[in-house]
Amino acid sequence: MQKLYRGRLVDHVQLVVRDLDASRRFYEAVLDVLGIKIDFEAEGMFGADELAISTADSEGAQGKLTGPTHLAFQAEDEAMVEAFYKAGLAAGGTDNGAPGERANYHPGYYAAFLLDPDGNNIEAVYHGAHERSAAAVEISFEMPSQA
C-alpha cells in the first residue's frame, strides 16, 4: 500500500513572469474553477495561498524570470480538471495535454496540462477516489505593530 502526502512539503512558490496582466488573467481563471481566489496583491505581484506571481522588478525576484516550471494543482474531481483546462485555454493558456487518465502515474490519476503565458507547465490533477485527512493546513498569527 502506497500513501501520498500532499500539503506538507512545499510552503510557497514564486513565479516571476514577463507580463503580469496576462498571467493574472490566466491564473485568476484556472484558480477560480479550482475554488481558489486571488488573496493578496502588492506592487508588481499577486497571489493565492502558496503561490505568488510577480514581475522581475518586484521585491524578492532578483531581476530574473523563473521557468519553465511545472506546477500541479489539486482538483476535487474529474469535472474540476476539465473546467480548469477549458478556463485556462479561454484565458490564454496553450494545450499541453488534454484531460484524461494517466494510469502510468498511478491508477486513478486524472489530469490536464496547460502552458501559461510564460511557458510554465501548469497541471490540475485529481488522484481518484480518496479521503483527505484535512482540507488544508491552517496557520494563524498576528503581525507585530509597526512602531
SSE order and pairing:
Blueprint: E1 13-17, H1 20-33, E2 40-42, E3 45-48, E4 51-55, E5 70-74, H2 78-90, E6 94-101, E7 110-115, E8 121-126
Parallel strand pairs: 1-4, 5-8
Antiparallel strand pairs: 2-3, 3-4, 6-7, 7-8
Detailed description of the structure:
There is one protein chain. By secondary structure, the chain is α/β, with parallel strands linked by helices. The chain has a single domain (13-57, 65-126), classed as 2,3-Dihydroxybiphenyl 1,2-Dioxygenase, domain 1. 18% of the residues lie in helices and 29% in strands. The strands form two sheets. The protein has a four-stranded mixed β-sheet with strand order 1-4-3-2, with helices on one face. The protein has a four-stranded mixed β-sheet with strand order 5-8-7-6, covered by helices on one side. β2 and β3 form a beta hairpin. α1 (20-33) packs antiparallel against α2 (78-90). The radius of gyration is 16 Å and the shape is globular. The mean pLDDT is 89.
* CATH structural fold name: 2,3-Dihydroxybiphenyl 1,2-Dioxygenase, domain 1
- How much helical structure, as a percent, in the residues? 10-25%
CATH class: Alpha Beta
Number of helices: 2
Strand content is 25-35%
Number of strands: 8
Q: Could you give a short account of the major beta sheet?
A: 4 strands, mixed
Order of secondary-structure elements = EHEEEEHEEE
Q: Gap between N and C termini, in Å?
A: 54 Å
**Overall SS class:** alpha/beta
Please give the CATH architecture: Roll
The domain count comes to 1
Within CATH, the superfamily carries the name: 2,3-Dihydroxybiphenyl 1,2-Dioxygenase, domain 1
Let me know the average pLDDT.
89
* Unreliable residue stretches: none
- Largest beta sheet: strand ordering: 1-4-3-2
Measured on Cα atoms, how large is the radius of gyration? 16 Å
